[in-house]
Write the structure tokens for this entry.
Amino acid sequence: MKHTARALTLALTLTGLLGAAIAAPKAQPKAPIPRKSAQEILAASPASDWRALNPDNTLLMELASGQVIIELAPRFAPAHVANIRALARGGYWDGLAILRVQDNFVTQWGDPDGEDAAKARALPAGANAKLPAEFSVPIDAIGKSARFTKLPDVDGWAPRTGFAEGFPVAADPKLGKAWLAHCYGVVGAGRSDAVDSSNGTELYAVIGQAPRGLDLNITVVGRVIKGMELLSALPRGAAAMGFYDKPEQRTGIQRIRLLADVPPAERPALQVLKTESPTWTQLLDARRYRGGWFVHSPGHIDICSASVPTRPAP
Amino acid sequence: MKHTARALTLALTLTGLLGAAIAAPKAQPKAPIPRKSAQEILAASPASDWRALNPDNTLLMELASGQVIIELAPRFAPAHVANIRALARGGYWDGLAILRVQDNFVTQWGDPDGEDAAKARALPAGANAKLPAEFSVPIDAIGKSARFTKLPDVDGWAPRTGFAEGFPVAADPKLGKAWLAHCYGVVGAGRSDAVDSSNGTELYAVIGQAPRGLDLNITVVGRVIKGMELLSALPRGAAAMGFYDKPEQRTGIQRIRLLADVPPAERPALQVLKTESPTWTQLLDARRYRGGWFVHSPGHIDICSASVPTRPAP
């Protein structure tokens, strides 16, 4: 029996952005049915639907296993992003470590000696120990300037969801707030009980089912756009909450730099699909209305079930 | 600064089943607000709210890294579960391997030589090469006998969701169907283009954001109830769709046995919380209405955001 053939077919057809969508949608029978596969949609995308990375809003994390690229979200967490820039510029994380990997939850990094005032790494010049909580922004902040594109799909966690500048966004008109949703790959700033106890020194990335219950409870600062598997495939920590019980189990961080501080020739030449682009809208439809291998079309997506494509700069 | 202290607090308070729930819920202001934390709820749970594993419905997968326990779902996939029992009894997977790990999607195992008719492992006696598709069951099948408990929470993927015998279940009265939802840890049977091309020889476990778009498109056979991190923390495959491009990168499967075939003394003594129990209802409420560290209570959960607790048999 062709197990591997089957596996390949399964893989091919299950893969998020693959598969032609020719089946009639269930939930929205009258919705337009895309005739093109995700690959075809991407192949046909105009250059104007893609954007370069902003070096001032991009972190380059270097592990022995490779590079992790994190796009920051100054529109949603300006004080934290400013602090993270200062921390990166001061080499704060260089030589620190990944301290915690909890299965189906988060990978978290910071200062292993943070508890020991004598050993704790000092903050570099320009970095603040205390910041305001930035759990949400006024809903007006995701207007035209943020190029927010609303999803028509129902979301149980928030009355309004969509994408803004590549980020999954939720909003509640009644609360008058908008916030970054905790989807896979989203990066947040660890805090203690006090809402203003995060300063960006300790960061976590979501590595499992979107913990949307964290939304509006902690400051989200960005999202991993490349190298996610270097954070998600790490051994889970055996101690409580996924902390490593032995220092040697931690994964060392070689350094984290702001892309603006990386010599241009050494910067990863990556492009991100604009989430306000027609191409992104078509890709979402290709996931909403599945065909080919799919015999049932969900007629639905959510902000955490579609990830924004990146590509090497042509 | 107490980074680690902060991390611990963050970890403690972010952990799924932890955290007292004393905050007023957002979405359902009149809902009862649990006063007990998840730990307290579990500590207070009566023995009658727990069940033992059914040895005929449990797989014990042995990897060099440890044991993975999979609970099978005969109510939802009777033909596949019967075949999987025969495959396990015949030692079909013993010495085979994990062939594919695709980040934020699935870990998949089967016969590396499956494509080569000469090398492909033969099916043991009692195992069928061909089975019917078992993508759903009639909605009546999740009635009283299945002890289905409905969630009041809105789900964008299905008009009705809940839990039955420990499994996350979705249903659509209009379609007259019920099915197992693709949540983290759920195990399915790989298929090719033909809907009846799966036979349980090649299985996958969900290791990322719930790919609910697969629901009603493939046969779900069970879920991992212990050792999930042994499947989710594996190196991602570098080839297309997460397949390993070098045989030596694969993780070998020492053996997979049906628990009924494991000497009683060697069987993991594990109990699973009954999803029809008051304790489970209380735990769901403790996740729906958060307090303590949480300053915003989501007032919402979904079938993939809460995992059914297990414990060592007292």
Q: What stands out?
A: The two ends of chain A are 41 Å apart (CA to CA). The first helix of chain A runs from residue 3 to 14.
